[in-house]
Amino acid sequence: MARKLMKGNEAIGEAAIRAGCRFYFGYPITPQTEVAEYLARRLPEVGGTFVQAESEVAVPNMLYGAAGTGERVMTSTSSPGMSLMMEGLSYLAGAELPCVIVNVMRAGPGLGGILPSQGDYFQATKGGGHGDYRCPVLAPWSVQEVTDLVQDAFDLADFYRNPVLVLADGLIGQMMEPVEFQEDRRPCKALPDKRAWAARGWKGDRPRAIINSLFLDPEDLERHNRDLKAKYDAMVRDEVRFAEYGTDQDYEVLIVAYGTVARVCKTAQEDLAEAGVRVGLLRPITLFPFPYEAVRRAADKARAVLVVELSTGQMVEDVQMAVMGRRPVHFHGRQGGMLPSPEAVAEQVRAILRDHAAGPSARRRASRRGGAS
Amino acid sequence: MARKLMKGNEAIGEAAIRAGCRFYFGYPITPQTEVAEYLARRLPEVGGTFVQAESEVAVPNMLYGAAGTGERVMTSTSSPGMSLMMEGLSYLAGAELPCVIVNVMRAGPGLGGILPSQGDYFQATKGGGHGDYRCPVLAPWSVQEVTDLVQDAFDLADFYRNPVLVLADGLIGQMMEPVEFQEDRRPCKALPDKRAWAARGWKGDRPRAIINSLFLDPEDLERHNRDLKAKYDAMVRDEVRFAEYGTDQDYEVLIVAYGTVARVCKTAQEDLAEAGVRVGLLRPITLFPFPYEAVRRAADKARAVLVVELSTGQMVEDVQMAVMGRRPVHFHGRQGGMLPSPEAVAEQVRAILRDHAAGPSARRRASRRGGAS
Amino acid sequence: MSQIVIDPEACKGCGLCVQACPQGVLTQGRDLNSKGYFYAQVTAQMRCIGCRLCCITCPDVAIRMRIHGTFYRYFQY
Amino acid sequence: MSQIVIDPEACKGCGLCVQACPQGVLTQGRDLNSKGYFYAQVTAQMRCIGCRLCCITCPDVAIRMRIHGTFYRYFQY
Amino acid sequence: MQHDVVIAGFGGQGVMLMGRILAYAGMRQGLQVSWLPSYGPEMRGGTANCTVVLSERPVGSPVVEFPRALLAMNLPSLDKFEPKVKAGGIVIVNSSLISRPCRRDDVRVVQVAANDLAIEVGNPRGANMVALGAYAAVAGVPAWDRVEEVVRETFARKTDLVEKNLAALRRGAEAVATGATASPAVAGA
Amino acid sequence: MQHDVVIAGFGGQGVMLMGRILAYAGMRQGLQVSWLPSYGPEMRGGTANCTVVLSERPVGSPVVEFPRALLAMNLPSLDKFEPKVKAGGIVIVNSSLISRPCRRDDVRVVQVAANDLAIEVGNPRGANMVALGAYAAVAGVPAWDRVEEVVRETFARKTDLVEKNLAALRRGAEAVATGATASPAVAGA
Amino acid sequence: MTELVFGRPRSLTRVPMHYCPGCTHGVIHRLIAEVLDELGLQGRAVGVAPVGCAVFAYNYFNIDMYEASHGRAPAVATGAKRTHPELIVFTYQGDGDLASIGTAEIVHCANRGEKVTVVFVNNAVYGMTGGQMAPTTLAGQVTTTSPLGRDVEQAGYPVRMVEMLAALRTPAFLARVSVHSPARIIQAKAILRRAFEYQVKGTCFSMVEFLSTCPTNWGLTPPEACRWLETHMLPYYPLGIFKTPEGPERTPAPLESLPDARGVQAVPAAAAPTGANGETGE
Amino acid sequence: MTELVFGRPRSLTRVPMHYCPGCTHGVIHRLIAEVLDELGLQGRAVGVAPVGCAVFAYNYFNIDMYEASHGRAPAVATGAKRTHPELIVFTYQGDGDLASIGTAEIVHCANRGEKVTVVFVNNAVYGMTGGQMAPTTLAGQVTTTSPLGRDVEQAGYPVRMVEMLAALRTPAFLARVSVHSPARIIQAKAILRRAFEYQVKGTCFSMVEFLSTCPTNWGLTPPEACRWLETHMLPYYPLGIFKTPEGPERTPAPLESLPDARGVQAVPAAAAPTGANGETGE
Ligand SMILES: Cc1ncc(C[n+]2csc(CCOP(=O)(O)OP(=O)(O)O)c2C)c(N)n1
Ligand SMILES: Cc1ncc(C[n+]2csc(CCOP(=O)(O)OP(=O)(O)O)c2C)c(N)n1
Ligand code: SF4
Ligand code: SF4
Ligand code: SF4
Ligand code: SF4
Ligand code: SF4
Ligand code: SF4
Ligand SMILES: [Mg+2]
Ligand SMILES: [Mg+2]
User: Fold this and answer.
1) What is the ipTM of this complex?
2) Which pTM was predicted?
3) Which of A341, B7, B16, G117 has the most C-beta neighbours closer than 10 Å?
């Protein structure tokens, strides 16, 4: 198909349809409302169903009902709405139901603002709901990539029988870029047969379907927890995704950033290269599983690491866990919808190099510089 | 006052009353319902008000209204209920409202079970709600300690104008132990005057009170985020609490555990000491701020670290961040309401020592052993 | 002719069937089942008119009714 | 005697007052204010009967009414 | 030394109260104590149990996987907890309701026909007190006087109950003392 | 080279559409493009703006703090963005509504009386097209033909609008070419 | 010839129910199963269990089942029904579940007119968590969170969900029944069948509120509990059909006359309608 | 002598409101402020702003204010009122806020009989997020999430909150008014004053639903929007007082007769009741 100029939110909707999703349950919230609006129009055209839920509390429970019959289902929301889904998400994970949830993040906490943010990293990657569950988290940096990742998300969800999160920032949702949909796209994972467990009426031909997260006997529940953990370990083993830019050559500083922020960093990298400063850029695409190995390897080649985020510092903890003290990890964060400019990122890099030239004590002072330092 | 045998949940209620809390809003859920039941009876006796909310979604919003007038207010719940409070908690943090929320954790994910768990560590410490907020998290290990920490929680909340979480497991709520209430207890922090910001009707004698988390201008919101971050940094600086057992002498393995699990580990430590195996035990009391420094210091004295948790491994990440690769960090976890016995913990320690004697490759195999490995 | 059978292990001894029976066919027994309940017993099968009210009332579906020959239904259920 | 004053900067040119006035006192102006709105103007003050319907209707409280001397209220508000 | 006991039976047999009395009495005696009810899957369906720990040192784990004593008021409780009792420990069996013998030979087994003895002393609902008396007599901790004291206070509002329950308590202790504890069923086994 | 432009004005002046046309035209020309609306606090209260980036390389940041060009359709927009334009950049000023001169002397300032010229060509609602024509003529990217092509398609459903808007577009370009762009207010300044 | 005329319905498993002795949850379960059997729906029915004493309902209904989160069963049912309209979807919810935490979900499920059936069990208390006040707790009723009795000045009056939902414009079948006596149980079943029939026909949302006992938390014996229900709950919670899709029927319709135990009706044994769960007449 | 007889009420700040031209949110704000002024409540009033177009209400009401999370204003109001019953607490909520996401909170706030006042602004659409379907959107009405018009088969009929809440037993004052014409505004104010008076007296919960316009998302000019409200909304949403604490009044009471513009009443200028926000008559 030819390239088409599309708004990110619309591209998310179209990608879902192309992935075979025919059921959307959602509630309006800026800056992702166009996903719902697009699907309210498009789904009936392809024989699907759009349901406007009464709230984001109801939404994951509608997904629970809909995914439980074995269909591909999704929702999208933004930060405060995501918080309201935490109990439901924990149930979806506990009952092992595949579904896709897109969070087009805005700035918080509370009502906060409607501009881009990455403040929900912890919520998405560590489990904002109760209990020990994990969801794969995919972080796109362009409209094209969000269409690809949304489609992959459905495959991953089905493969692992697990909710999959797409974590985007407001920019991804709001901007228009050219996108291309592959006409003959093949699933990124083998698609299991859902009939074995889906609740579609029991005709006696299989065990009764019971969509459930309750295990009152602690031994059963421990077994269930361990089965889940084994699944998450498989994700960690098989699903790590990241992209590297300029890491095949030498560099002094490694920048780690995801989502739109990584694009700002890429521009900074190019500007710095023109000025003779060599920087490597690593962009995690899966936030869970996090590319610990890749970050460690890339950091080892650098003198220092700089993490850039739209938050006061969340992914930086995973980077620290990857680097394990072998290199200093610096942080530059903007909040509240403010964005770092390429110029500001470049300046951070220069400051790090200055500090490193000046010796360890200056370095200590400089760590976690700027931003929310 | 004389020692009194009390159920943990009742002690929580009584501690709140003694801390001057006169307003409780909550919704029943096992294993913490007795907190509500106790206060439904006791609060009217002291001129207070008990309100049974329609849901855990409503609860934090009732706290928002009640804390906004400057009163000491609280709720208690258990894991699924806590997940439903995530949006509200983010608003409370965003609007900087002091209040106390007790989570008597049970096993998850989803409905899970009603037995003890520590699966909500990440949710509590990293922010299960959206946006960049943090709450001090206090983790008691006995009925006596929960009464002390609940009282401190109110002081901390007022001092920082921030919600404070008490993270207990189901055992703390359900067991009876002797407790003593100090009659002349003094606040653990200076108590600020709330009249400057509380919404009690505007008589023109101060700026209007506006209880709010919305900052639509990104520069304002960034400023707000940085003010909040500065507050969290102050907590990190001033509020770290932990307890150490046997770390003044030499030891080979450092155990890190919190809550009731730490008591199991303490028994294991004593059993091992009798067998001539020296173990240090460090028990974080504040989970945020986490005692990174103390853990690092204590770990440096040991050959290896063992983290024991009722989860598939959450606090272990903070321990890893503290230890920064300087010592191997092992993990023993039980889930689903199952508890490690002192015998099992002792066996873990012995296995670690065996592996270390055997050399590095065996060590690698053994890391994150047992439990949810 | 109707025949009432109460499963002693299924019965929880709630007494609702005893109360429901218009004919005094059933009584709360004095024997404990393995779960610790004094289960209901059929003590006057002869008087049973096959009305099924006991069956309909039992919350634990512990009562079955069999018939021999033609069955006169007192009401639609 | 009543006097109607419209604040050009507060007015958003919605036209509701123009429609509400029973006396045709007000008109939608042709001048833009700094926010880009064609604000309402008092073009026939003479005809004003002081009924306050324009004030009551204005969503932006852009209209004030002053009186000189005794004021006859048409209705309680 | 640490004394820990699991008390288990049907809901309604008063096992929670038995545990509380032990814990209170231990506290009176200056011991560290903890009392933990089971609130797990057994909650419904009739069975209930609690764990009491009495210790001179601060109580470590309030959960005890392998208790030093078991007080089994009915058969399912004996089935469940009997294998877990530490060697050298104590098992009190309510032989009024448990007709099978105890299978362990490395513990001290005391058979008390608690329901029968309770009826005997005119307090048919006092089987739990009989069993408690037997346990206290066998274990020796908490001190007998403290137990009596707490029982007195527990029923203080209804004076007739105080005497009735003390009688049951003492009958239990007496049964241990006189050795007249084996129930017929066991005797025949 | 990267071409980026901020287009700003009142809501209702059609600035979002201007941006989209540029982005589409750029895409037609084989460029990498991004179009980003402001959806921030300005959303209500009448002002609106969008940022368009056209580039031969993949677009890095779609947010541009210091744009190479500004198309200011009203005074608040000029006030807000004028100081941010990169030195050597372009500022197109709708002099029909902006009576103050541009304060920068390190950029190329082009005054276009967009509303007046739109009325002149009989398309009073086409001020945005006039300004767009002026920008396209000055910037040179995207290619003029592509812009005309996209305008044609955009209004394809209403054929009379196609010609009207093309006329406005061309009038804007012409105004740049003839230099008859200075509005009286600026001339007098 | 021996024939089983009353036994376990096929749509109930053989798993013993965990309810307290005399708790009428069990009766309501059986009624649902009987109706599913009689309408031939076992193979396309999907039930949604609540969080409440009926949390284990998935072990008892011999059909595909969901266990929903507390209060959200109507949202779960919506999700299932929308993907597969041919399924017969019902929820089973307590009064805490439906009338407190799940208020928004039931109101909007009813208001969207989802073609599902809601079985609402009102026992005036939170059973599972040990007897706290529910929105349906009667004025003055003592519970663990209303230790001095529900004070209507502080906690308001008990909610009548059927009446409240009847005020919505969307067509629905709404009724209240009771199971405290055999006659009421018989009547309840007839009304429940009608509720399911509306779903089978695809007509409308249907909900039947069952007045139910909680002997344990009421502190009464099962027979006492039935009497308490009759004397205390019935006056406040009138039985009846409050709304049908055929017309507004906003005022409670009189219940159809109770089955007359004296009107004898001869039916050959083989035609006995209540199926047996794998049991034969021996 | 010059006297200001109509100006900005003291309980409104001087901050210009951000609402779209002709949006009647502004009128409703002014009415609340006037009532607070007239009842002398500015010093003890506390308002709760919603998430919706009125999210910035805290900038406009010249009193202590809260900004609540979406739909939860009644819970916030409950919290505030329970701690300080002497405060006069009101919420201001849109129809998405109150009738969709906040359904449980409004039902239970009303049912507990919290002594607060709810101002419910029904504009049949989600204004702030750009015109999606609300529970109150009319049958057939086109919105961005009902692009072919609200299909009552899929989305059900519009919710009438006042009627639904009127079905609750707890005493309350419940009314529906409109602000699409000067006469209706005058009447709305009288009813709103009555709602606040019930709170001042500590009698009961009170809620007034305001039919309001959203010219922007309806795609109409402000005068057209007022006419659309009159022709489309009024028939479905009857105005009136639906319940008073004095009696059930379940059927809409007729509105008191409209003020008669011809009945002239002489009042000295100084007695003009509407205060002015720091303005003097010059
Ligand atoms: C989110 C959440 N809140 C609270 C609970 C605890 N809880 C379990 S059942 C229940 C109430 C059950 O009462 P009801 O719905 O009336 O059912 P019943 O047990 O009376 O049949 C509650 C509050 C929970 N599991 N999840
Ligand atoms: C939890 C949550 N969900 C969704 C939103 C997005 N949102 C903001 S306002 C609004 C709807 C407002 O509509 P309404 O309440 O009718 O008020 P109006 O703008 O029409 O006055 C929504 C859905 C949000 N801020 N928070
Ligand atoms: S069938 Fe009727 S008469 Fe026979 S035992 Fe049952 S209730 Fe009694
Ligand atoms: S009704 Fe059923 S459970 Fe109750 S006593 Fe009779 S047979 Fe037993
Ligand atoms: S007061 Fe009445 S007559 Fe005068 S301008 Fe206003 S509406 Fe017109
Ligand atoms: S009603 Fe107010 S805002 Fe509207 S035109 Fe008149 S003065 Fe202007
Ligand atoms: S607690 Fe009440 S509702 Fe629950 S099973 Fe027991 S009697 Fe039934
Ligand atoms: S969007 Fe609608 S409701 Fe919101 S301010 Fe504009 S006109 Fe009013
Ligand atoms: Mg109930
Ligand atoms: Mg609205």
Assistant:
1) 0.96
2) 0.96
3) B16
